[in-house]
Amino acid sequence: MRGYYFITGAALSRAGNVSDVAAAVAAGVRVVQYRQKQGLSLDLVAEARQLRQLCRHIRFLVNDRVDLLLEVGADGVHLGQEDLPCPEARKMLGPEKIIGVTVHTVAEALAAQAAGANYLGVSPIFSTATKGDAGAPAGIALLAEIRRRVSLPLVAIGGITLANAPAVIEAGADAVCAIAAVVTKPDARAEIDQFQQLFCGNASRF
Ligand code: TZP
Ligand code: MG
Questions:
Q1: How many whole angstroms from 158 Cα to the centroid of ligand 1?
Q2: How far is the CA of 151 from the centre of ligand 2 (A)?
Q3: Could you report the per-residue pLDDT of 84-116, keeping only the tens digit for each?
Q4: Exposure string (b/e) for 121-159, b if CB count within 10 Å is 16 or more?
Q5: Measuring from each residue's beta carbon to the nearest atom of ligand 1, which residues come in under 6 Å?
Q6: How far is it, in rounded angstroms, from Cα 178 to Cα 24?
Q7: Which atom number of ligand 1 is nearest to the Cα of residue 80?
Q8: Domains and CATH numbers, the chain
Q9: I need a surface site. Which of 19, 83, 119, 173 has the fewest CB within 10 A?
Q10: Is the model's pTM score more than 0.85?
């Protein structure tokens, strides 16, 4: 899980989820998360199926929805602190599926690791308008502290740009996610390429 980690952002996207995910796959991204808070389950299943197909050779995760994961055969789920708890999700999904958990503190990081998460999303690193309830910025210092205390792969998210990403990687992030900095741009693929280049020469932790 080293590199740029793509999360869909339909509300901000110029080109739409399908086009953005195709761009991410073409850029060599290894993990895509389908995060879609609005819409009918029926429509989400149809779109997730399309994205699963685009992501057939890479990891395809869904945000929040274990039911959607099961329906489209996704590889895993990403859960927040207010979502289905990790142990419950693990019981439902078994040992093979990937479970990512968002954490905002060292205590949450240690708890998620003990609960069997496969990776952690550390969030929000910087302030962000993309997620209204993201909370106060954790900052790079907290990311570095979590890096010292847990061994799981860390995905940094929230307000990340090409300008600040190098410091985030330096602080110990295995992967970075940036939604607005990619999907609002005229050429999402070109932006992703630049994020990917920040990781050149580093071996994958997965
Ligand atoms: N979770 C924590 S912050 C965030 C999510 C989904 C939004 C990140 O978006 P951006 O545009 O990269 O700040
Ligand atoms: Mg959630």
A1: 4
A2: 23
A3: 999 999 999 999 999 999 999 999 999 999 999
A4: bbbbbbebebbeebeebbebebbebbbeebebbbbbbbb
A5: 7, 123-124, 128, 130-131, 134, 157-160, 178-181
A6: 12
A7: 1
A8: 3-197 (3.20.20.70)
A9: 19
A10: yes
